[in-house]
Amino acid sequence: MNDEARSAGASADGQPRSLSDQIVKALAEGRNKRVRKLVPRMHPAKIAALLERLSPAQRLALWQQIGDPLEQRVLGHLSAELRPTLMRETGDDTEHAVDEDAGKPSTAEQAGTRSELQALMDALDAGKLKRVGKLLHRMHPAKVAGLLEALPPTARSQAWSMVETERAGRVLSFLHDEISTALAQELDLDDLIAAVQPLELDDLVDLIQALPAELGSRLVLATTGARREQLESMLSYPEESAGGLMNADAIEVRAEVKAGTVLRYLRLLESLPPQTDMLMVVDRKGQYQGALRLSALVTASLDTPVAELMHTE
Fold it and tell me: Under a CB-based contact definition with an 8 Å cutoff, are residues 106 and 79 in contact?
C-alpha cells in the first residue's frame, strides 16, 4: 500500500482524505512548510497529475514548493503543453539578484542589506517563492531575522513559510519577542518542536516564556532527559531574575564558601563557559539561592564568604 492509499479515508475531525487533498488544503491555507513535507511522499507521476488538474494559481503555488531534486522527475510526467510553462517558472535569477555587484567594493553594510531586502521583496511580489527560499537559505539566521522584521506582516509570513524547518529555530532566536512569537505560532506544532530542538537552552527558555502558556508547555513536554530537567529548572525562575537570566552552563558555588576558595577553583578550570559574568549560588540540594558577580568576587577579600557577596532577586 502506497503513502497516498495509507492516507486515504476520512478522519473524525474532517481532515482531507488523500495526500492530494491535504496538499490542496495546505495550499489554500498558505501552509507552505506542510506542502513541502507532503509532496515528497507522492510519486512524481501523481504530483504531475495533481498539477495538471489544479487551477493556474494553485498550480503555480504548488510548483513553488517542489524542491530541485524532485522537480526534474515531475517534469518528465507533465503534458507537453504544461511542461514549458513550469520550466519557465523554474528559471531562477537569484544569483543575479544577490550577486550582481560581486567583486565591486561595498560602500556600506546597510547598502548590502537594502539590496537583499529589495531582492527578497521583488521575489515575493512576483510570486517566486522558490527564489525566496534560495535567497534566505544562503543567509545567516541573524540576517534572515533582520530581513523578516523589515517586511510587512503579510510578506513576512510568506517569506517565513520558505525558511527550512531545521533553520527556523535559529531564526526565531534572533527575532524580537513580538515577531518571534507570531511566527512561531504560524508553524505546525511538530515543525515548531523540530525547529527548537537545536537551540541553546537559554534561547529556548526565552522563546517559551514569550509564547502562550499552552504552546510553551507543549515544547517543554517534547523535550526529554537531562535537557528537560535543566529546562524546567531554568523556567522555574522568574523571567527577569538572576536565575532566569543565568546561562545554562553557569558554574555553581555554595554560599558558605569563601571568595579565595572560589577563585582557586576557577583557576583549576581550563576555561569558563562563554559570556560568564556571574556564578550561580546554590544550597546543598542544588536549589538556586542567588548570583555572585565575577566583578564582586575578584575585588573581595579572600576571606569573605560568598553569602556576603552574592545578590538575590
Answer: no
- Residue 143: pLDDT above 70? yes
pLDDT of 23 higher than 70: yes
Does position 241 have pLDDT exceeding 90, yes or no?
no
Q: Is the pLDDT of residue 97 over 80?
A: no
The CA-atom distances, in angstroms, between 253 and each of 16, 217, 248 are 57, 30, 14
Query: What stretch of H or E contains 94?
Result: helix 94-99
The 10s digit of each residue's pLDDT in 273-292 is 766 778 888 877 667 788 88
Per DSSP, which regions of the chain are E strands?
252-254, 278-282, 288-293
Judge whether 127 and 164 are in contact, CB under 8 Å.
no
The CATH number fitting domain 244-309, selected from 3.20.20.70, 1.10.3720.10, 3.10.580.10, 3.30.750.24? 3.10.580.10
**Residue with more model confidence, 16 or 45:** 45
Residue located via cell numbers 521575489: 123
Q: What angle do CA 278, 279, 285 make, to 5 degrees?
A: 150
Q: How many helices (H) and strands (E) does the chain have?
A: 22, 3
Specify the pLDDT at position 257.
Answer: 85
Q: Give ∠ CA 236-241-245 in degrees, rounded to 5.
A: 85
Angle at 124 between CA 121 and CA 125, to 5 degrees: 85
Q: What is the mean pLDDT of residues 36-60?
A: 91
- Residue pair 233/282 in contact (Cβ under 8 Å)? The answer is no
pTM recorded for the entire structure:
0.61
Short-list 238, 310, 231, CA closest to 278: 310
Residue 196: CB atoms within 10 Å? 22
Give the burial string for 220-253 (b: 16+ CB within 10 Å, else e). eeebeeeeeeebeebbebeeeebbbbbbbebbeb
